[in-house]
Amino acid sequence: MVENSYAVTGMSCASCAAHVQKTVSKLEGMDECEVNIATEKMNVRYDGQILDFDKIKKAVENAGYGLAEEQKTKKVELLIEGMSCASCSATVERVTRKLEGVGRCIINWTPS
Question: Whole-structure pTM over 0.85, yes or no?
Fold first, then answer.
């Protein structure tokens, strides 16, 4: 069995969540499906030999909503040497934010 959590888009009420849950629960190979309107998340447990993300996504889209795989985020803290002023830290922040996969960058420069 495969367990996953997905983001559901386009829901505006509890009825929407119930509709998505009912639709996905009917899929062959689906063991458990729970949709939470407050978090806009769908937690599922299914047979990976019968179902996959694309089949689940198609069912959700046919019901009138969207489905996206959960993005895994990671926090990284680094020690950066050689900065001598606030302008240095601003430059490093600006360049780092442009890197693919970086969602947020905060540099805390303090003079020593």
Answer: no
